[in-house]
Amino acid sequence: YSAQAPDSALLKIAADELLSYGEDKIARQIYEVYVKRLIRESITADELKNIAMDFYKKGNIPLSESVFDLYVEKVSQVYPKEKLIPVLIEVARMFSWDDTLPGPRLRDIAYAENIFKKIEIIAGLSALDDGVIYLRAFNLERIRDFTKAKDLYLLLAERYPQSLLTEMAIFKAALIFTYILKDREQGKLYFEK
């Protein structure tokens, strides 16, 4: 029945209500129908972002990501690169492991990395400042992609030698060389910097 509902907003209201009564499984099924309906409807990027944020705030990560994917797809078609990259960074930060931001955080580091990969494809690593490079490298450490994390730490140190994060990035690269990659010579080299 829910797939035939005339107004997709009613689907969301029904799913929200079911969720409030603890009917998580049924609510999730209705939310999924709701997201599928969003794909077919003419909905603005801002509306998609608001819907995604609503799911995010409610702790519904899978549906939040699904709607954020729609949002990213829509803004990718209409925004110039200069406007798109900050939007993608904002989404990636939301799902990243970053304890410096205020408030409760929901994390899906693999999803954040997928967004970072889109940024890299669209604009290259040059689109990332020192803080974002460090955040991405730290995320990669958390998902155990140590080689890529090390490469990003070294890129940060090379590109931003005066950054407050450079010393920590070099230290983390040294740790990865020494204890993960078992390259004690390179580790020693970076420990001494």
Describe the structure.
The protein contains ten helices and no strands. It has about 190 residues and is mainly α. The protein is elongated and about 65 Å long. α1 packs antiparallel against α2 (about 25-40), α8 (about 145-160) runs antiparallel to α9 and α9 runs antiparallel to α10 (about 185-190).
What is the fold's blueprint, element by element?
Layout: H1 8-20, H2 24-40, H3 45-57, H4 61-78, H5 81-95, H6 109-123, H7 130-142, H8 146-159, H9 166-180, H10 184-191
Helix pairs in contact: 1-2, 2-4, 3-4, 4-5, 5-6, 6-7, 7-8, 8-9, 9-10
- Characterize the quaternary organization of these chains: single chain
Figure out the total of helices.
10
Q: N-to-C terminal Cα separation, in Å?
A: 65 Å
Share in helix: over 70%
Largest sheet: none
Q: Beta-strand percentage?
A: under 5%
State the secondary-structure class.
Answer: mainly alpha
CA-atom Rg in angstroms: 20 Å
* Number of β-strand runs: 0
- Overall 3D form: elongated
Order of helices and strands: HHHHHHHHHH
| Average pLDDT number | 88
The low-pLDDT segments are none
In short:
This protein has 193 residues and is mainly α.
Keywords:
193 residues, mainly alpha
